[in-house]
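Proteins fold reproducibly. Take a tokenised chain:

. . .
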Amino acid sequence: MVTKNKVEPKGAVVNEAMSDNDKRAILQSAVTSSLAIGNRENGPWLRDIYDTELVYEIGGKNYRMSYVIDRKGKVVFGQAELVVPQTVYNVVAEAVEVKIEQLTTLASERENNTAIQQSINKLVELLEKEDLDEKTAEPFLKEADDAIAKLTEATPMKTEDGQQYPQSAFAYSPEADKPSGWKLRLWDDPEKKVTRAQLGRAAAALSPGGFRGQKVAIPSADMAAVKRKIRAEYRKLDVSDEDIPKWVKESDETRNRVFESCEIDIQEVDKGNLAKGILPVRIIKPGFNSSKERYYTENAVRDAAVIFDGAKMYADHPAKGDRPERSMRDWAATLHDTRVSESGNAVGMAHIHAGWLKEMVVNLFENGDLQHLGVSINAVGRGVKQVVEGTKTNVIESLVKSRMQSVDFVTEAGAGGQAGLTESVRDEFIDVELIDLATLREARPDLVKEAETDIRAQIQTEVKAKMELEAQVKELEGQVTTLTAERDALKEAAAQAVKEKAKAEAQALIKEAVDKAELPVAAKTRLIETHKEDESADGIEEVIKAEVDYIASLTEGGKIRDLGPSGDKDPAKTKERMEEGFAELTGSVESGKVAAAGR
């Protein structure tokens, strides 16, 4: 059984983050406060709540009105309208409501829920139909089932710092279905994604000290791949290799001359373009090359699409003895429109300007032999020796611009393999893009010696300057210590002077006030002695008044009481009583004797 009220949404705004129970409690309280009159036994009670409207009952009648809940929970109502509830016994409507509930739960678990919300809206509109039946609801229910199935099988996410991240956001994720094992997040947040700051945190986590003391544990077998992924992300952000943190660099990273076969994309050849000498070329693709001697990363493919744009294409690779400036006679074409294709390959269009090569290409195509024309890149790659998928290979992480780079037409693409550094020594021209210290030392020992001498002299100068600076620093530190001590002594002396001045002023005021008081000399002496260390005269008048009152309590008519009759025939006893009385008054036996003697 489903009870429906005829409600047409009017576009009010609702706080979507609020739970259904919270929303109902807030609305019930607001309706009660706004509409309850006299005896609340007649309502109002909420019957139904929608996204933008509600239906309430009061005095046996039902009304609907729109509402808005702001972020602070304040409710604003629209105009109320009388409605007549309808009870519909419809299992189809119940099925629709179940799907709405399932989709709503899934939407709350996902950041991007636009598609889910659209499905929910369709089902809500379906419920408003008066003639709802199974046939009408069937396509909507199927669409909801498909959406639920798709969402249930969604990619796992890992939550960090209250945000959800996919597997691609981490440098290490050995098992796609176990997010708990994913480590080294590379995304700053789901909106910014990869940032240099976050890459720095990941790199620091691999350092001996870790990131903020926390060092990540990565299996040694996977460490090379993890570092390679972090380096690749740095390069995507155009961070130079020199600025990449050393914790993710490889110690054996080297530059290599790369001769690698690429292909004329026969499937993409257009006869019209072919007549103009335009050929589609697949420059390089990610993964292993045919011999598995090299493995090209996605970053290397992106580099190829950049550095080969506008590259000259020659007939044959450079021969030994060729200088960087290749022969004009061999320049046959230029590569344009380079990019990374949807399949992930670096591709471009070869624009042939050499007439003889245009004619050859057309003839080869018409005879079905175009695939025999080889194309090969001549480039400088930066890579490391690593094991990939169980194969020891040279992982090319990036391609760099060099004076020798080209994409060449050859009879056999890739022939000649990789020209190493040792072979370049035998050439008349030594390629500075590839040369290392050992090669340079062998070819130009005099230049190496000169450089070493210059560097040694520069180091000595820097060391001497540093030592002088350290001596100056120590001297200045000594001066600072002395000046600090002198400053502290002066501050202490100044403070003491202020204190003594305040004390002297206070003592003068105290003495003046005590001297003016009508007190025995002994009492005055005692008061001055008692307050001789006071640094303030505040309250001395009250002390003197208390002393005067006390003296008055011991006298009668201005004379000392309880010391015996004045005509006592025993002067010794009289004197003793006086001393005891004054001692009690002054708080001192000696002061009592002095006071008694002065009577």
Notes: Residues 445-516 form the longest helix (72 residues). The CA atoms of residues 224 and 522 lie 96 Å apart.
